[in-house]
Amino acid sequence: MCKAQSVNSGLALRGCCLELIRSLSKLHQLSGMASSDKPEVVERDVKEKGHKEDDKEEGKGGFIEKVKDFIHDIGEKIEETIGFGKPTADVTAVHIPKINLERADIVIDVLIKNPNPIPIPLIDINYLVESDGRKLVSGLIPDSGTIHAHGEETVKIPVTLIYDDIKNAYDDIKPGMIIPYKIKVDLIVDVPVFGRLTLPLEKNGEIPIPYKPDIDLEKIKFERFSFEETVAILHLKLENKNDFDLALNSLDYEVWLSDASIGAAELTKSAKIDKNGISYIDIPITFRPKDFGSALWDMIRGKGTGYTMKGHIDVDTPFGAMKLPISKEGGTTRLKKNKEDGGDDDDDDED
Question: Which of 93, 97, 185, 274 is deepest in the core (most CB within 10 A)?
């Protein structure tokens, strides 16, 4: 089957070449006539001489147009005979596999279709990401592979946005914002008959400039108090300073009272923090008060105690999953006990 197709293609190509030779012969005859035919020289007045020169220019123009038409016809005949065509391309998707406070990794999926009977090389990929006409990042990917004959292939273009570079370049872009973007891609391919072609593509969308949530340890509430082991609840206030919602999945943290670490943990916790909103969550912790020294007595006397808290929260966003840091240093909190432990568990202590 393949051999028969090869023979048929060869015969078709041979016929096309013979047609090319015949056309070239005709072109040669036209050229010879244009150069060898010399009209008789006759003295005429200035007006007639001007008309003669105009006719000569028109003759030259007509000859050039014939050459252009001839070349165009030959190209069409070769295209029809062998089956060459222009490839097509489209941006099918834009992914953000990783995003944090420092950077966003973007992957652009471009589907390229090759209608030709031979593979075509993808020579270069030029890309530009801009926002409101201002460049965010650009680059060139050379020698980007080959598109199979009569096939299609999805080419993945990796792009990285460094937020510090963007914020340093444009003062009006602030953490927490959502900015529009336009991705421009030029695919440069080399196709027989057509030569080197540029396939321009565009895609619009939005991307965030994330900002870490603000955290505050408002109070520590005893569930069970003992010098050997105390179970307490940390009442946390989380403030979302982004223009998009955060869906909390889990968090890890470590807490210090004065300079003493009272514990660290990782836990699953679900909560929604609206854009530019506040949410409260309670997380349990177990510690040994006798290890704290003076910080313990300050808490027992009802005095405020300095604390530090550090960790991360895993959240889902409209732009994908993020792991954002949380931290608070130099804060002050208070400690309350339940009534059964001799404390004052009034409603005023509840958030």
Answer: 185
What pLDDT, on a 0 to 100 scale, did the predictor assign at position 121? 93
Q: pTM higher than 0.85, yes or no?
A: no
189 and 231 in a single domain? The answer is no
Burial of 334 (0-12, 13-18, 19+ CB in 10 A): middle
Single-letter residue type at 278: I
Q: Could you give the number of structural domains in the chain?
A: 2
Do 329 and 221 share a domain, yes or no?
yes
Q: Has residue 55 got a pLDDT over 90?
A: no
Asked if 87 and 197 touch (Cβ cutoff 8 Å), the reply is yes
- Whole-number Cα distances in Å, 178 to 128, 210, 281: 19, 8, 26
Cβ-defined contacts of 174-177 (< 8 Å, 24+): 174/209, 175/101, 175/209, 175/210, 175/211, 175/241, 176/208, 176/209, 176/210, 176/211, 176/241, 176/242, 176/243, 177/208, 177/209, 177/243
What is the gyration radius of the CA atoms in the chain, in angstroms? Answer: 38
Report the CATH number at residue 325: 2.60.40.1820
CB 132 within 8 A of CB 97: no
Q: Flag whether 231 is in a domain.
A: yes
Confidence at residue 300, expressed as pLDDT on a 0 to 100 scale: 58
Q: How do the residues of the chain divide into helix, strand and coil, expressed in percent and rounded to 5?
A: 25, 50, 25
In a domain, 80, yes or no: no
Q: Which residues contact 266 (CB under 8 A, 6 or more apart)?
A: 250, 251, 252
- pLDDT mean across residues, the chain: 78
State residue 258 phi and psi, 5-degree precision.
55, -120
**Token output for 307:** 């604390």
Domain residues for 194?
Answer: 88-209
Pairing type for strands 320-336 and 214-224 reads parallel
What is the CA 321 to chain-centroid distance, rounded?
15
